[in-house]
Design the sequence.
């Protein structure tokens, strides 16, 4: 993505027609240069109409992230977050991991309008579109070692589900170990990477991606059933308000997790468990699959499933879940 493309899209963000001459003048470039820059919009999943005599117009408006709006909504909790907004990066989590290694403080957050190489669980790519998604990573430092942080991704999912519901989503559920779903379709994902000493301290980079309002371009790149906040009841939601509410919820949840662990979130996670009682296919790390029924989650965040007469404990490193017959 060229910097000029993004600057042009910011000028067109209101969704109204703007003459090419006026846009080029604002960007201090020629009409020909502007025309070339606008070709880059498709790569970002943005549809632009070009009409002779009227100029350029986006198929729908884009709400770009605004640090002032986010900080204002955070209120007193703004002092707990050090926010950086990027136009583009390879991955917010990769960017933040480097900052963490250099000593960045707990509460450092990186959000990006565009990720060139967003990452999901087990090496998958996280698909996002400009203005269609919310992608950010938050650094949190714990005194405990990694082994004492079992269930962290589940506690984060509870906090994220609360924020989504506060922004209009209805029927948000969680899918073990790190997905947010609505109607059994993926609404968001969580990827947590930790580093540190065995006995602590530990630095956790918490990456979150939310499908905010999917266009056709983004939907075509996702290889599983997916949905967005707008389709789940959040049509009037604001990306800036959602990011602020997610950060506020995470700060409070992570403080509590530091003191009480996953036990403080277990009951709420179980209530949100979209797959409770469902038959699923369990896929092990080696590719072997088996059928089981989802029961509950253990105190340490392990998933409990029944297979015949036996109850099995499953860890996040070993399996993924696929519904046998989605409803």
Sequence:
């Amino acid at each position: 993505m060229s910097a000029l493309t993004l600057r042009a899209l910011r000028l067109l963000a209101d969704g109204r027609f703007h003459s090419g001459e006026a846009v080029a003048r604002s960007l201090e470039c020629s009409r020909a240069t502007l025309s070339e820059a606008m070709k880059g919009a498709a790569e970002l999943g943005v549809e632009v109409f070009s009409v002779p005599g009227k100029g350029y117009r986006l198929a729908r408006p884009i709400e770009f992230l605004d640090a002032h709006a986010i900080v204002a909504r955070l209120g007193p909790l703004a002092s707990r977050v050090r926010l950086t907004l990027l136009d583009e990066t390879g991955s917010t989590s990769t960017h933040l991991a480097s900052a963490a290694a250099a000593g960045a403080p707990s509460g450092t957050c990186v959000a990006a309008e565009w990720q060139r190489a967003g990452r999901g669980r087990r090496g998958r790519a996280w698909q996002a579109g400009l203005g269609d998604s919310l992608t950010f990573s938050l650094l949190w430092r714990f005194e405990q070692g990694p082994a004492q942080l079992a269930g962290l991704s589940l506690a984060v999912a509870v906090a994220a589900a609360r924020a989504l519901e506060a922004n209009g989503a209805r029927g948000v559920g969680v899918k073990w170990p790190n997905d947010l779903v609505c109607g059994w379709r993926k609404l968001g994902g969580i990827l947590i990477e930790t580093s540190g000493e065995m006995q602590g301290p530990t630095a956790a980079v918490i990456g979150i991606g939310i499908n905010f309002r999917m266009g056709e371009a983004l939907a075509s790149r996702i290889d599983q059933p997916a949905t967005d906040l707008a389709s789940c009841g959040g049509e009037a939601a604001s990306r800036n308000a959602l990011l602020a509410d997610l950060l506020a919820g995470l700060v409070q949840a992570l403080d509590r997790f530091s003191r009480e662990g996953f036990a403080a979130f277990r009951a709420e996670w179980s209530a949100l468990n979209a797959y409770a009682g469902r038959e699923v296919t369990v896929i092990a790390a080696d590719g072997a699959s088996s059928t089981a029924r989802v029961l509950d989650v253990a105190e340490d965040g392990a998933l409990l499933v029944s297979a015949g007469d036996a109850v099995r404990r499953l860890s996040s490193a070993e399996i993924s879940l696929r519904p046998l017959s989605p409803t």
Q: What stands out?
A: The chain is about 30% helix and 30% strand.
